[in-house]
Design brief:
Immunoglobulin-like, 29 strands, 3-stranded antiparallel sheet, alpha+beta
Length: about 450
């Protein structure tokens, strides 16, 4: 391909030289045009007319510098014929080519598109370039280059391969950062960073001050679902979102849900004396204990006397005895050798000189007491003595059964009376039966009396 182009260039140069010679010899160009081929005629005619223009300018005393409008190649021929025209000796029989021919070196020097006699191919005109859309083909000697149609914009420069490259202002020194700032290159620009470095969780403002970063305002929430972000200096904390619990509810240990408050299990009982606290979802209610009823006047629970109200279930042979919060059904059964005297007493039958009978107590009397567990101690609960005391009487009082735990003791008041004292508190409801013996010393004889003391300890009000 290169050889073909080189040969073609030599032919074109030869046709041009013939045209110049014809102009110098004939002083005209038209008579020779029809004798040659189209390719030869084109180059012959062009160089012939260009030479005639140069010769005319020389004859008319005009400048030998060609008008740019006639083209670069024509200008070379114009100037050569103008400058050398006056020195040409033209004969009608044998014109000499070398007198009007432009040398190869001169043409190569004047024409940048000629190289060693070979003319450059303009790929941009022939369409053999490979420039893409948005690029312009620029012909070069022996080749071409593609140039971008648009500029790269501020902060970028165009490279030889028509690419936009970022300008590193920090490296080139074209930034305007103050001395106590550091230049940091960015795509298409740069920024000035203070030399002072902030701790984690802080960022520098334009003045170089370290200010807190509010991580909670970030689009990427730092806390997991179900927690709220609380910003702190240089950091943040995540706190579980606490649901708002209504009255009667509180958060569970995990803080995830509301659970019922058991008001009845607290040390501060919300209900008054005699009441039972019953828990309910989010609330509670106070009810009177079994055996009590609510008094609207005092607004307290009072004991129901089942014996008076006849709401007991005692049999016909039993006696109803009311206690706090309940009742007891009591029956009086006198032991052998005794007879019933009233509802609470058993009298000894006559002994008829029977020594064993005479040693038995004269009387057995039944008593009933009821008090709560919170009764203060020590306290006197029972008094015993002869119904008709006489001077010289003396008694001896003792508890002969039912006091295994030592809750009670006896105390002498005087020679003819004594008392039973509760010396230890009973902490829970229970029924007790004390057998108390009183020995009466009168006029040299000793008589024994028994008191059967039923004690019913009820729950604290």
């Amino acid at each position: 391909m290169t050889q073909i182009q080189c040969c073609r260039s030599q032919l074109e140069k030869q046709y041009c030289s013939d045209g110049i010679e014809f102009a110098n010899v004939r002083e005209e160009c038209d008579s020779h045009i029809g004798e040659n081929s189209t390719c030869e005629a084109d180059y012959f005619k062009a160089c012939c007319y260009c030479c005639l223009l140069g010769k005319t300018a020389q004859v008319q005393g005009q400048s030998c510098e060609p008008n740019p409008k006639i083209g670069y190649q024509c200008g070379i021929v114009f100037r050569a014929c103008c400058v050398k025209g006056q020195d040409l000796s033209i004969s009608d029989d044998a014109p000499k080519k070398e007198q009007v021919e432009i040398s190869k070196e001169e043409l190569d020097q004047e024409d940048p598109y000629l190289h060693d006699g070979c003319r450059d191919i303009n790929e941009c005109i022939t369409g053999t370039h490979s420039c893409g859309i948005g690029q312009t083909c620029v012909n070069t000697l022996g080749s071409f280059r593609c140039q971008r149609d648009t500029s790269c914009g501020t902060g970028y420069e165009l490279t030889d391969d028509s690419r936009c490259k970022d300008i590193d202002e920090c490296e080139t020194g074209t930034h305007n950062c103050p001395p106590d700032f550091i230049c940091q290159n960015t795509p298409g620009s740069f920024r000035c960073r203070p030399k002072l470095q902030c701790m984690n969780g802080f960022i520098q403002d334009a003045l170089g001050n370290c200010i807190d970063i509010n991580e909670c305002l970030s689009t990427n929430m730092p806390c997991p679902a179900g927690q709220i972000c609380i910003n702190t200096d240089g950091s943040y904390t995540c706190q579980r979102m606490s649901p708002s619990c209504g009255r009667g509810y509180h958060l569970n240990e995990d803080g995830t849900r509301c659970v019922d408050v058991d008001e009845c299990s607290s040390s501060n009982q919300p209900c008054g004396e005699g009441h039972v606290c019953i828990n309910a979802p989010g609330n509670y209610r106070c009810e009177c204990k079994t055996g009590y009823s609510f008094d609207v006047i005092s607004r307290t629970c009072i004991d129901i006397d089942e014996c008076v109200a006849e709401s007991h279930n005692c049999s016909f042979n039993e006696t109803c005895f009311n206690i706090q919060g309940g009742f007891r059904c009591l029956s009086l059964e006198c032991p052998e050798n005794y007879r019933k005297s009233g509802d609470t007493r058993c009298e000894r039958l006559p002994c008829n000189e029977n020594k064993e009978c005479q040693s038995l107590p004269l009387r057995i009397t039944y008593y009933h007491l009821s008090f709560p567990t919170n009764i203060q101690v020590p306290t006197d609960i029972f008094r015993m003595g002869p119904s008709n005391a006489v001077p010289g009487d003396k008694i001896l009082l003792s508890i002969i059964s039912g006091n295994q735990e030592g809750f009670f003791t006896t105390k002498k008041v005087n020679n003819h009376s004594g008392i039973v004292v509760m010396q230890r508190q009973i902490t829970e409801p229970r029924d007790l039966l004390l057998t108390i013996q009183m020995q009466l010393f009168r006029h040299g004889t000793v008589n024994t009396f028994i008191a059967k003391l039923f004690i019913f300890v009820s729950a604290q009000l």
